[in-house]
């Protein structure tokens, strides 16, 4: 299995990008991982929230292959502990899927089409974080999940 993370818009904070790169590299020791940025929409100011969600949704869906399992990072999603998340990853690996895709939406969330295509929703917290921070948090949690599965000490630090 491989894991892909899709996010809208690039990270312009150099320190944050450096942390993302670090965890991405660490994660690569456990699983094939790809982090793909979907560029911000041009002229988004001229679009309604609904139009923006629709256009972003079309871009997200265009990045998927038919057999991908799509999981949305969504404030109304299921919350898991880090151990629960590692078990969630293991269950997906055991199911024999080729690619698990996590998506961080744009500022207004996801279009109906994206919700309809998704096989699950996860929430990292009841708190709201910037879309930039969520990237770091999900990559760190993926890394943590694999260290838990391998019984490595990172989880308790």
From TrEMBL:
It is an enzyme of class 2 (transferase). It catalyses: pseudouridine(1915) in 23S rRNA + S-adenosyl-L-methionine = N(3)-methylpseudouridine(1915) in 23S rRNA + S-adenosyl-L-homocysteine + H(+). Keywords: Cytoplasm, Methyltransferase, rRNA processing, S-adenosyl-L-methionine, Transferase. Its EC number is 2.1.1.177. GO terms for cellular component: cytoplasm. Its main location: cytoplasm. CDD domains: RlmH-like (cd18081). S-adenosyl-L-methionine binds at residues 73, 105, 124-129. The keyword rRNA processing applies. InterPro entries: Alpha/beta_knot_MTases, RlmH-like, tRNA_m1G_MTases_N. Pfam families: SPOUT_MTase. One of its GO terms (molecular function) is rRNA (pseudouridine-N3-)-methyltransferase activity. It is found in: Cytoplasm. Specifically methylates the pseudouridine at position 1915 (m3Psi1915) in 23S rRNA. Belongs to the RNA methyltransferase RlmH family. Homodimer. PANTHER family: METHYLTRANSFERASE, RIBOSOMAL RNA LARGE SUBUNIT METHYLTRANSFERASE H. This is Ribosomal RNA large subunit methyltransferase H. It comes from Xanthomarina spongicola. The gene is rlmH.
């Amino acid at each position: 299995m491989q894991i892909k993370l899709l996010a809208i818009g690039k990270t312009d904070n150099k320190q944050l990008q450096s942390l993302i790169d670090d965890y991405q590299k660490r994660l690569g020791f456990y699983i094939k991982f790809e982090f793909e940025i979907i560029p911000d929409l041009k002229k988004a100011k001229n679009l309604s929230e609904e139009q923006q969600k629709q256009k972003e949704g079309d871009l997200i869906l265009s990045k998927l292959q038919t057999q991908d399992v799509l999981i949305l990072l969504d404030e109304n999603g299921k919350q898991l502990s880090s151990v629960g998340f590692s078990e969630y990853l293991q269950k997906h690996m055991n199911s024999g899927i080729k690619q698990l895709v996590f998506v961080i939406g744009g500022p207004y969330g996801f279009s109906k089409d994206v919700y309809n295509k998704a096989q699950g929703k996860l929430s990292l917290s009841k708190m709201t974080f910037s879309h930039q921070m969520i990237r770091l948090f999900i990559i760190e949690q993926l890394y943590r999940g694999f260290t838990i599965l391998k019984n490595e000490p990172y989880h308790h630090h």
